[in-house]
Design brief:
Elements lengths: L4 H14 L2 E3 H8 L3 H13 L4 E3 L2 E3 L14 H4 L4 H12 L7 E4 L3 H11 L5 E5 L2 H7 L5 E5 L3 E3 L4 E3 L3 H4 L5 E6 L3 E3 L3 E4 L5 H10 E7 L11 E4 L6 E5 L4 H9 L3 E5 L3 H9 L2
Parallel strand pairs: 4-5, 4-9, 5-6, 9-12, 12-14, 14-15
Antiparallel strand pairs: 1-3, 2-3, 7-8, 10-11, 11-13
Helix pairs in contact: 1-3, 5-6, 6-7
C-alpha cells in the first residue's frame, strides 16, 4: 500500500516514542517501502531536529550513542515483527524431523517455534534454558523435555549462568536453533547483553549444526556483545522481507540462506484489513 511521506513520518516518530531506537530494516517492513525511501525520510526528519540518525536506523534527538544498544524487553520483543517471525518458524519446521535432539534458546522466535512444535506431531527431545518454552512444551505429546536449570533471570524468563557447563558437555544435540539480536557478515552474531551468550555458546558447542532463525529486521544489525563469527553457523533462516543484496552478502561469505515466503493467510489478513 502506497504511503505519503507525511504518513511515513508519523509512523517513524510514533515508533520512536515507544522505542529507544528504530531500525531501517524494521521500518521497511512496517511500511512496505524501500531502504532508500526510509533513508530519505530519516534524513528529512533529522534536518527538522526530530530524530538523530545512527548506523542502521535512528534514535530520539538528544539520546546518547549508548541508547542504540539499550535493552529491549522480552515482553516487547515477543510482540514485535510477528508476521515475519511466523514465516521464519514455518520454514524452520521443515528442517525438524522425528528422533532429533534439538536445542532452543530463550529468544522469542524460539518461543514461537516451540509453540508450533506442540501441534506438529513430532517425536523429539528438546533442550532449552527458557522457562517460557518449558511451560509451552511441558506435557506435549511426543516431546521429551530437558531444561538446563541455573540462575533464573525473570526479565528474560530464562535460566543463565555456568550451570549449563554441567549439562552440555554430557549431551549430544543434532541442531541448535539460535536466535539473535543482530547478525551481519562483518560482526557475526551479536546480542544486547553479555549474560545472554553463555548458554548459547554451550548449546552451539554441543550441536552438530547451528541454524540461526532471525526475521529480516535482524540482518545487517550489529548489537553490543559479539558471540561468534558467521563461520560458526550452518545456515540462516529469515523471511521474505530481506533484500537480495543482504542475502548475497551472506551467501558470498559461505552461509546457506533459506528465505521463508510470505504466508498466504497473512496476505488474506492484509487484504481483509485485519
Amino acid at each position: 500500500m502506497y504511503m505519503l511521506s507525511e504518513q511515513r513520518y508519523h509512523i517513524i516518530l510514533d515508533l520512536l516514542e515507544k522505542n529507544a531506537i528504530v531500525k531501517t530494516h524494521a521500518l521497511c517492513q512496517e511500511m512496505g517501502t524501500t531502504r532508500e525511501t526510509i533513508r530519505r525520510d530519516l534524513m528529512t526528519l533529522e534536518e527538522k531536529g526530530l530524530l538523530k540518525r545512527i548506523r542502521g536506523g535512528a534514535m530520539k534527538p538528544g539520546a546518547s550513542e549508548s541508547d542504540a544498544n539499550s535493552y529491549t524487553s522480552f515482553d516487547h520483543r515477543r510482540t514485535s515483527h510477528l508476521q515475519y517471525k511466523e514465516c521464519v518458524v514455518q520454514e524452520a519446521l521443515k528442517t525438524i524431523h522425528d528422533g532429533q535432539v534439538i536445542a532452543l534458546d530463550s529468544g522469542t522466535t524460539d518461543l514461537m517455534l516451540a509453540k508450533a512444535l506442540v501441534g506438529a506431531g513430532h517425536s523429539l527431545t528438546v533442550v532449552t534454558n527458557s522457562l517460557a518454552i518449558a511451560n509451552e512444551l511441558a506435557g506435549a505429546k511426543g516431546i521429551e523435555l530437558i531444561v538446563t536449570g541455573g540462575v533464573y533471570q525473570a526479565d528474560e524468563e530464562a535460566f543463565v549462568s555456568g550451570f549449563a557447563n554441567l549439562i552440555f558437555p554430557k549431551i549430544h544435540i543434532d541442531t541448535f536453533y539460535l536466535t539473535t539480536c543482530g547478525i551481519s557478515v562483518e560482526s557475526g552474531i551479536t546480542y544486547q547483553r553479555m549474560d545472554e551468550i553463555s548458554v548459547q555458546t554451550q548449546m552451539m558447542e554441543a550441536a552438530d549444526h547451528t541454524i540461526v532463525i532471525a526475521d529480516s529486521s535482524k540482518l545487517g544489525v550489529n548489537s553490543l556483545v559479539r558471540m561468534c563469527g558467521i563461520e560458526k553457523i550452518s545456515a540462516l533462516i529469515t523471511d521474505y522481507g530481506v533484500s537480495p543484496t543482504e542475502v548475497g552478502k551472506f551467501e558470498k561469505a559461505g552461509v546457506r540462506v533459506m528465505v521463508a515466503p510470505e504466508r498466504s493467510d497473512a496476505i488474506h489478513e492484509q487484504a481483509d484489513g485485519t
